[in-house]
Specification:
alpha/beta; 7-stranded parallel sheet; 4-stranded mixed sheet; 14 strands; globular
Amino acid sequence: MSCEWPGGRSRFFAKGMHMKKFTLAVHSLGNIGTRVVEAALAAPDCQCLGVIRRAESLGTQSHALRGLPEFADLASLEAAQGRPDVIALCGPSRSIPETAEAFLKQGYNCVDSFDTEIPATVARLDAAAKAGNSVSITAAGWDPGTDSVLRALFEAMVPRGTTFTNFGRGRSMGHSVAARAIKGVADAVSITIPVGGGRHSRLVYVVLEEGENLADVTARIKADDYFAHDPLDVRQCRDREELAFVADQSHGVLMERTGASGMTDNQILKFDMRINNPALTAQVLVSCARATTRLQAGCHTLIEVPPIAMLRGERMDIISRMV
């Protein structure tokens, strides 16, 4: 659609916002990038221009590319396909702040699912986005991300009380990437196990590099900030083939809040979902990519983004359908 949303704009929306097709570039083709490609191709208002990959990876994973062109850098993609409206950053989590900062300063909107040190990252990316007159939505997965929105709504509904977010059982992509980065680890998968009351334990399956021993690798994993705060169990797999049997990508969350609305106690709220982890994260990224084309310059988290900005369609049609 090309018509401007009628009825006025929220102060969050960019001046002169129009409903139109947006173009997307996917940065990295790992678990998330592969699913972002799928979500982008399934969105009628999204045109995926291609995938940016390491030069040594070009020519591989043709099925995951689903017919899209691949490029070794953004300049090559832009020369062939034109400038993207948004870049979905799907590389290793710890590389996201630096990568996003560079693109934002150049004026590219970016979305990412970075999941640690969020206040500091928001401040860093906000400065970069305002310098480049661009938009960032960071921590745009399902937790942090859509679960953050639900926690905020739960607290608005029941201001006095306690919320517990219980994850799993399921595979944590961020923790798995962190485990694979540990010295002596050839490959790894981290499983999150809910203990209750918002507490979790981590079960990490590892394939060791030649010459390494499990005790040393376990100590290094435990020292990493991703794992230092939870009970940890590290188990060795003989090879990647054995690891594949425990690398299920399912996950889930049970969120519970108990408290008071006004002066009335015993208000109990629950949210429960069981999902494919990378598929849902990727879908949130594509929905947030749409939202970046409707927001003012700066860095946003999902609790600051109007939900309507993430949805395809004309404003009053969405209101009529949802409200």
